[in-house]
Write a structure and sequence with these properties.
The complex is a heterohexamer, with three copies of chain A (310 residues) and three copies of chain B (100 residues).
Chain A lengths: L2 H14 L8 H23 L4 H17 L1 H10 L5 H12 L3 H13 L8 H9 L1 H11 L8 H9 L2 H30 L1 H17 L2 H7 L1 H24 L4 H12 L5 H9 L5 H30 L3
Helix pairs in contact in A: 1-11, 2-10, 2-11, 3-7, 3-8, 3-13, 4-5, 5-8, 5-16, 6-14, 6-16, 7-10, 7-14, 9-15, 12-16, 13-14, 13-16, 14-16
Chain B lengths: L3 E11 L3 H10 L5 E10 L2 E3 L8 E8 L1 H15 L5 E10 L6
Antiparallel strand pairs in B: 1-4, 1-5, 2-3, 2-4
Classes of the chains: A mainly alpha (310), B alpha+beta (100).
The complex binds adenosine monophosphate (3 copies) and sodium ion (3 copies).
Chain lengths: 310, 100, 100, 100, 310, 310
């Protein structure tokens, strides 16, 4: 088993056992900043090599996917879950958006198995973060769009830390290219996996702390957190095939679709739809879907990507 | 030593409100504010500040009584229902009244 | 604006007491608490918070006067002798009495 | 429970003054102090604590009224003009008067 | 001279000179977490290779040593030092337990000289942390065992940060083995020595700040901090020989026995025996014994391990 | 273009766009500590190799330069800028002192172009930090030297973090030499450039936040921040030639002279000359001169160093 996911288990275990193990908050922020920058840089270097036209098509498809994914999620949460509109919309936004760390674990998973993938995929991570949040807000505010503090929200989602660092890294990487990156490669590329392991330890501690939320959330949300990723992964695979991604790239896009945001979305929804209970969306995204994806989802999505042909 | 009485308004809330509170304070007439990062627990359950959505701040504003009351009322009305917010008022004395 | 008077109990002590104080506060009837990391000095000498055993915290509890007094008395009785502990009480006013 | 009234002096200022304030407090008769790192804004503009020259601290001193007044006066006289400094006094009650 | 110990001197010097040099507390915590995890991982990888039986025997001996070491220390502190029971018990617990950083410096010392040692020694570090603390508490509470808040104490010592990270690292290392660790080796193995240097700088700053305590503590405690490590090193060597450790392993076990805890023990004793004055135990452990061990002790213990045969 | 300066632009951009991107303060401190130590270590290793006599001569010249540089700056600020004495003296001190990060960027710039330089230059960085600060204080206090709290100031400048870490690193490096450093080389040497990139991101965020100051400061100070570095670079080149530095070394000394301190000087002047408005000196040093040097100055100074012969 991949050591890095064991770090996640260590974190969960320590938290559930009420250990006083606690990563300083500054370390958490530092690791997050590092991962976002590193992912962006790596993607940017490759992005420079890809013909713009191809990327443009793929990017458009990805953004469209991000805009639409919340709709089925919202329908399920309202229809089957009988959740209040605000909660349903907020959770839908989280699941339509993307989890950067899940993406990172997936790339590590592919690398370990020498499975190639379009190296500019990080661009799509950046592109997937925002659209679902917009849709989620619209779903929450139908009939009262006016009430939305759009400026604050736009600021949150477009200038939020993760988007700025991902796009910033992508741009720098694209501008300087492979040998421009060389002198900082040791830090941002070679150390990536180790840092990711540390971050997963932290994620485990955080996830372990959300278990209580889940109990409150109830069985429906747990089921939602296990099943919706599968549906979304399917969507991701179809989209990936349509834009002609490789098997590896398909597995990654499936993972992005199946993953739920717990960095960009929570902050944005908190400001745009405050009446939504954050414990529900974060509990499901972090307590159920994140572990499900890194343990079960990613291998499964790869298998599907390698077997499902059209 | 001649002192002047002012109100100290302390707002303990989710870090997500920092930007909004700072703007509100300025708009409602506060000359300044001081913020520190805190953790804690209340009706909304524990907030340990381990990561973004879990972070809390304490905002202190020293100002005239009427400004403090307006700001306090505004904060509760605007954020009190849906956000983790706790606030209290205290009587303090300052030496340079023109500052507050 | 109608306000209600409450007590603010502030305990400044070694970080090692955090878990215990939080439990005590809950047991003795406090609805919540707020903690921040501090450094300082007192009779026990300087505590600069450079490492585990050197760390200090400040615990704030807003509650009814009787709860504050019970908690304060308990803290001094239980930890006052052997730990670095400083505490004080303050009169504050809150807007949502049911919260405290 | 028998309490004793003391003054709480709170000084919010540039971190560069930490060492000096601590010495002053001791010289003027304070038995201790508590410091926390803060950020904020006032007449001197925002101080976000992102780096050395931009850092602010909050210094709390619990002491006798006269000590508090002397210290407050001294701080304003010495640093008030050229440094970012805000201070206020508050009435608090303590349980162990000999400590302060 | 080994550069890493020079970082300790730099820290002590800066502190004594009242420099405003100060490592952020988050950095201190981060370095500590890193070292504990890295030590565990490295040991775990090797642990998987060793036959369980051998380890079991060695482990039992080590735990027994940890349980008994505080007794002679306590006797000395009470008999010669005339210290109050609580202080004697607390100091005895610190010296019976182990200093992870001293152990790390010792391994670096051996590695530099290409001296082999049982690579699963980190397991013994984890095992040595706790027993002496239990003995120390019992010594403090004879006649009033009931008064001990055992649950709180057990929680402190068994779920304390250092035990969790050491055992967590050991388990992960043992589970994934050498090539499983490969992708995170750069961070957790190759960078170890550099991080250790930084941590020693911090340790120097902290130790430099305890000098005042020592003046208060007086000459007896200073002598205690210099002589007891030698006695305990002797015990460590004997035990190591009995369980058949190599010269390198013997030197390491001697170092563990001779080192005094300043992470696990202080926290635990503060909760279990609050009336003990922490300035005494920490001043001696950090201000005397730690520097003594890294400058004089370790080379000496190695020499003894290589010369004392039975 | 060198990737590391792009990180600076990313930071400035994020700040101006009011992004909530914010590096934890503990990370800023950690990066600063790391850079200072690493620069010192690298220089120390080389210092050991250089004959003392040569270094002594060069060092004396550098210190003299540091003591005198504030004078012309002060004259310009008073004469042309009509600034109050205190402000003029404080700004002069900042510009007479040196910016460690600018120096680091310059070395990276040379390394990338395989241009050799005296590897003990970091010694001169340490030596240049203090003298100008002393001169600046004297300029501010002419007629009232008595009023200066010299002890506090001396403490600030001689035991300030940057001097202690630079000299500490230099000493350790000189003591253990190249192969003594080997085990910690990966952290302190190989990772240097990557860490520098992160620090420049932070510097960008800080610099972006000082733009408001500049507006207040007005056009004169902006011009000052662009022109004085050129004058000082000229001085640096002359001094470098006189003491027979190589072209690379000359470019570095020019950069040091042209750079303005924003770590040691602000802290010291704040204590020694509190009536000086820090927004002016920091705004100019960080908002104008720092970016000017890393984008325009360094390449220019190298060109001059390679072309100006005597
Ligand atoms: N009684 C209290 N005393 C002190 N702080 C409190 C109290 N209640 C709540 N808080 C703080 O206010 C935050 C939000 O409170 P709540 O909205 O009740 O969850 C908590 O996370 C605490 O930090
Ligand atoms: N007079 C005081 N004013 C403010 N804080 C104090 C005072 N005395 C003590 N403290 C704080 O309380 C902690 C413990 O105090 P002590 O038990 O006197 O060492 C100190 O480390 C300070 O942080
Ligand atoms: N009205 C106020 N309320 C609370 N804190 C303030 C206030 N005014 C100033 N401060 C704090 O005191 C510091 C210095 O204030 P000033 O000297 O006005 O810039 C600011 O950075 C704030 O942290
Ligand atoms: Na998704
Ligand atoms: Na020991
Ligand atoms: Na200069």
């Amino acid at each position: 088993m991949d050591p890095i996911v064991l770090f996640f288990l260590l974190g969960v275990g320590a938290k559930l056992a009420k250990s006083d193990l606690r990563l300083p908050e500054a370390l958490y922020e530092t690791l997050a900043i590092f991962l976002l920058l590193a992912i962006g840089l790596k993607g940017g270097v490759e992005l420079a090599k890809v013909p713009f036209a191809d990327v443009a098509v793929q990017a458009t498809a990805v953004v469209a996917m991000g805009l639409l994914l919340p709709l089925p999620a919202f329908a399920i949460l309202r229809g089957l879950g009988r959740l209040p509109r605000a909660d349903a919309a907020s959770i839908a936004a989280h699941y339509g958006s993307v989890s950067v760390v899940t993406f990172a674990v997936a790339t590590a998973f592919l690398t370990k198995r020498d499975i190639a993938y379009e190296a500019h995929m990080p661009l799509f991570v950046a592109l997937l973060e925002t659209p679902a949040i917009v849709t989620g807000i619209l779903l929450a505010r139908i009939g009262a769009i006016g009430a939305v503090r759009w400026r604050a929200v736009a600021h949150e989602v477009l200038l939020g830390r993760s988007v700025v660092l991902l796009l910033g890294g992508l741009t720098i990487g694209a501008l300087v290219g492979a040998e421009g990156i060389a002198p900082i490669k040791l830090l941002f590329v070679d150390l990536f996996k180790g840092v990711l392991a540390l971050f997963l330890l932290e994620m485990g501690l955080v996830a372990g702390g959300r278990v209580a939320d889940l109990r409150r959330a109830g069985p429906f949300l747990v089921a939602f957190g296990l099943i919706v990723p599968l549906l979304f992964a399917g969507v991701g695979i179809v989209v990936a095939r349509l834009v002609g991604l490789s098997d590896g790239g398909t597995a990654l896009l499936a993972t992005m679709a199946a993953s739920a945001s717990y960095i960009a979305a929570p902050t944005a929804m908190r400001i745009a739809v405050p009446e939504a209970n954050p414990a529900l969306s974060i509990g499901a995204a972090l307590g159920i879907t994140f572990p499900f994806n890194i343990f079960v989802g990613i291998p499964l999505y790869l298998h599907l990507a390698q077997t499902l042909r059209f | 030593m001649q002192t002047h009485s002012r109100k100290l308004l302390v707002v303990i809330c989710e870090a997500a409100l920092e930007r909004a509170l700072v703007d509100d304070a300025r708009l409602l007439g506060a000359a300044g504010y001081t913020i520190s990062d805190v953790r804690g627990s209340g009706r909304g359950g524990p907030r340990e500040g381990m990561w973004e959505a879990d972070r809390s701040i304490e905002v202190k504003v020293i100002c005239e009584a009427d400004v403090a009351e307006r700001l306090a009322a505004h904060v509760l009305a605007t954020y009190g229902t849906h956000y983790a917010v706790t606030l209290y008022l205290d009587d303090v004395s300052v030496l340079r009244p023109e500052k507050f």
